[in-house]
Design goal:
Order of helices and strands: HEEHHEEEEHEEEEH
Strand content: 25-35%
Region (Disordered): 43-79
Keywords: Membrane, Transmembrane, Transmembrane helix
Protein name: PknH-like protein
CATH topology of the largest domain: Protein Transport Mog1p, Chain A
Transmembrane segments: 20-38
Low-confidence stretches: 1-33, 36-71
CATH architecture of the largest domain: 3-Layer(aba) Sandwich
Number of domains: 2
Largest sheet: 8 strands, mixed
Structural class: alpha+beta
CATH class of the largest domain: Alpha Beta
Number of strands: 10
Mean pLDDT: 78
Distance between the termini: 25 Å
């Protein structure tokens, strides 16, 4: 995502000054509000944020459920309004402690132990995605401001994009989910993902998530039955929108299910 040099000496100076001014303004606003939005690359097209819609959560008594509305998946381009907000983690995490950082582009999109260090574009192609980091610290990775410098400060990280069609989005989510499945079996003592839980709000609005279990609970090579997870990973799809949500906050089954449903209804 490095900008190329601008054509013409005079215009290059103007663009560099404009870029510096934009970054200074964004940092000042972020310090006041706890929300950081990085400007798009010079010469690129900004992706405008639509007005935020209230997230809805449907409690679940089983691992799979269907919304009675049968509403179709979200149409149109993905914007920051489709991304998860800090309020989704209340009451487990105080929302006043969560800082939001957004960027658009490419990058790693899930647990590298399962997927490798591939970027989303390397895996699926496409122009890029919306990345959102939810952290409890302003110290972030110099290479990716949506990732906390210290993993204990990461509440969650979401990567969302749009496919040309709902059928292709379904194909993408199936591929992204399959990349996580190998981490459901690990040597005893190593952290491991639990079984896959499916959430279905409508035929075209679905999610699959797996809880994370620490190595002390892994005595057989698989996640233990009857134990609570500590966060997890979810693959989401709503119409032509798709994404991956990593939850680093130590949420149990009920809280994970609630957060995944909120992210899915927002998508």
């Amino acid at each position: 995502m490095n900008d190329g040099p601008a054509a013409g000496g005079g215009r290059a100076v103007v663009r560099r000054r404009s870029a510096v001014a934009a970054l200074v303004a964004a940092a000042a606003l972020g310090l006041v509000t706890g929300r950081f939005v990085l400007p798009p690359p010079a010469g690129g097209t900004a992706h405008p944020a639509a007005p935020s819609a209230p997230a809805t959560t449907t409690p679940a008594s089983t691992s799979t459920s269907t919304s009675p509305t049968g509403a179709p998946g979200a149409p149109g381009p993905v914007t920051t309004a489709n991304l998860l907000e800090p309020v989704a983690f209340r009451p487990e995490v105080a929302t006043g402690r969560i800082h939001v950082t957004d960027r658009y582009g490419d990058g790693v999109y899930a647990n590298a132990a399962c997927t490798g260090e591939k970027t989303l574009t390397q895996t699926l192609g496409g122009p890029g995605a919306h990345f959102r980091g939810l952290t409890t610290s302003l110290r972030t990775d110099p290479g990716d401001p949506t990732q906390a410098a210290d993993q204990v400060d990461q509440v969650a990280r979401e990567v969302v994009a749009e496919a040309p069609s709902p059928s292709l989005a379904q194909n993408f989510t199936e591929r992204l989910l399959l990349e996580q499945v190998p981490c459901q079996e690990e040597p005893p003592g190593h952290w491991v993902y639990g079984r896959t839980t499916t959430v279905r709000l409508a035929p075209d609005i679905t999610a699959s998530w797996m809880g994370t279990y620490e190595g002390l609970l892994n005595t057989t090579g698989r996640a233990p039955e009857g134990e609570e997870p500590c966060g997890g990973v979810a693959v989401l799809r709503s119409g032509s929108h798709y994404g991956v949500l990593e939850v680093h906050a130590c949420l149990g089954t009920a809280a994970m299910d609630r957060v995944v449903r909120t992210a899915l209804s927002q998508l």
